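Notes from the 1:1 (GR / supervisor)

We went over the backlog. Supervisor wanted to see one worked example end to end before approving the batch request, so GR pasted a single chain during the call. The sequence is below; no edits were made to it. Supervisor asked that the structure be written out right there so they could see what the output format looks like.
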Amino acid sequence: MLTKAELQRLRSLREKKSREALGLFLVEGEKVVTELLAAKFPFTEIYATPAWFHSLVGDAAPLPRRIEITPDEMVRISHFPTPSTVLAVGQISRLALAPGTLDRGLTLALDGVQDPGNVGTLLRVADWFAFDRVVLSPDCADLFHQKVINASMGSFARVRTHTADLAPALAATAAPILGCDLAGEDVHALPPLHDAIVVIGSEGRGLSPAVAARVTRHVTIPRLGDAESLNAAIAAAIVCDNLRRAQTPP
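Structure output shown during the call:
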């Protein structure tokens, strides 16, 4: 049976302030927990019904604590209107961005992307195109938000992520910095770039002025129809795809 203290702790992790204070975050849902286990994510605790534990097969990450709970207890700790059968706890760990990191390889940089679903999907984009890292500005949605993790579909555990003030980080790199601009060159004509940074801004305001000032190459996605704009994750996927295709000889 869960203690009152355990109930309070698990419920408190819905809020970023509590996550940061405790250094912990939650992941709830059969699919996402299974995906993260398959990616060897080191959870510290798993709360689940006996049926879920019995269904667990394959080579999963070590589980230091397995706590069997009843469906009624899951209702009390669930963050969803319709409770899942499993809820996992992980430790928050943030990677500092070391000097020179952005000079090598491909980086997807998120400038003030505040929608958690978009941040999670952008992690999937970086994972799909095998980017070396994702860098989030401090005003992006919290990396450890439940919606970010769910939308990443397991990429959360595979993609190397950093949080950093983007403007000074970009100022210190010699790598080309690509930013979307209606007046930019056609993204389909991108030359091969093995070291580059793709910067994606929020859908509402685009790139912040300080980050936009650091862009060294402006690209545009040609518009053939009448849509006003593209979703940030879709735009990122198109730019990343063309960057990768330019690297591959025909």
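Supervisor's comment: The longest strand covers residues 177-186.
Batch request approved.
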